[in-house]
DNA sequence: TATAAATGTTCGACTCTCCGGAACAGCCTG
DNA sequence: CAGGCTGTTCCGGAGAGTCGAACATTTATA
């Protein structure tokens, strides 16, 4: 857990949330594993788990603690809460049907990348995550596509907070490399990723923005690296481009329709 | 928040998690709203929010606190962690394509019902939830289908914990009604819901079990009540029956294939 | 069957830390 | 410029979390 500045955070709550991270990281954990991972007394861990269980965040099945279904419930709420969610969802399914690769839509939050719509099995699988948190911005096509649109100070803030740890041998690990890469991204209009997050995995991502220029997130295509040659690369980039246009047009339609709302009954 | 027995729970963590519930319930909240909702000092709320934000559970956009994308990440993990997730997912999409209504798959956890696979917009929408938690078992077709398979003591435990609050005028509110309803469910093989959770909403659900008889969850079909007549009711029930068979066959295949695992590398 | 090693749970006392209140810096709107 | 709001910091007191030990249960090992 590389939490940076613990000033002002409540240690009790932080300990509880750290337990959640540990359970995620270990993909389910027993009591003793958690005691060892946290350096807390058994009774303390017990109290935390009991509290988390009380609120539905943790369940105990077969002497193993796991994250609860409440996270599904809250996750779905977060997804549907976003005003662009239907547009993003439709764009991803269109992209998925048009392309031979996997499509998804990801956003940046707190300097990390979370996939919101796409194939569950890959996007957020804990097997590919370093700690309990989602992907780093610098190891994903979506992350690079998104931060390429940010002012430099904001990018530096993210680097300061999370660093540039390597996920594979191909990962970017220095600021200079990263900023050079971001310049390339801006130049060619999309970001590419060749095994920088997961060995043998290739992806491209393109940021989508509101009419006012705010970045919503990034549309992505990903798949195994061995199928990639110059031609497929070009076709996939072309597809991604068209998907981004569809998304931004959908957003424009969303905001120019004052009637036909679904909010009130 | 009708948390039952606060013995042994950590008040600090509980306060933080209660804030999450409040944000969900209010669909985003400002600081002062949270201060009022919780009866805590402003500085205390501030500390909690800072801690939650530090871990990615809360974000602040435009002077409003919202739940963070990390919940999507954790929710997806919970979904994919379940060994039956692919079978459930495939069954739901089959059912959805075959039926004119909305299909989903829900599970019971901690005495509440959470929809795992299905249309996001409806299943877990906070607009239809009484408190921050998912649906009650007694107001949903899925809940009734699931607990109809449970021993009576387990059903009573759930009632003791959550009570039988009415969501609409049609809701079941007494133990006697509920147990009579569960007997009907067992008799006809599926549970029906006519506006007991949401006014004007109709649904049916059928529990699916492992070969050893453990209940995985419930497959459901739902839609507006006004389209329901005897004929559609019969066709939908028939579809649900076939979907349940597909699911249970899928599970059987899952367990009789010792080779082709994806767990080790 | 007995022994050992897990987990789940309770209890009390020390001490850490969370809570409240007040005060101040920004940012809007009037 | 006053009057809302939010976001943030500070400090003292009191309340609450942490630890460690002990016991009840269950599962595994000899």
Automatic annotation (TrEMBL), chains A, B:
Q: Where is the IclR-ED domain?
A: 70-253
Q: Does the keyword S-adenosyl-L-methionine apply?
A: no
> Where would one find coiled-coil regions in this protein?
none
Q: Which UniProt keywords apply?
A: DNA-binding, Transcription, Transcription regulation
Question: Which GO BP terms sit in this record?
Answer: negative regulation of DNA-templated transcription
Q: Which ranges carry the HTH iclR-type domain?
A: 10-69
Could you name the domain of life of the organism this protein comes from?
Archaea
Please name one Pfam family that this protein belongs to. Answer: IclR_C
The record's section on SUPFAM superfamilies has: GAF domain-like, Winged helix' DNA-binding domain
Q: Which PROSITE patterns match?
A: HTH_ICLR (PS51077), ICLR_ED (PS51078)
The UniProt GO MF terms for this protein read: DNA binding; DNA-binding transcription factor activity
InterPro entries, per the entry: GAF-like_dom_sf (IPR029016), HTH_MetabolicPath_Reg (IPR050707), Tscrpt_reg_IclR_C (IPR014757), Tscrpt_reg_IclR_N (IPR005471), WH-like_DNA-bd_sf (IPR036388), WH_DNA-bd_sf (IPR036390)
What is the protein named? ArcR family transcriptional regulator
Q: Which organism is it from?
A: Haloferax marisrubri
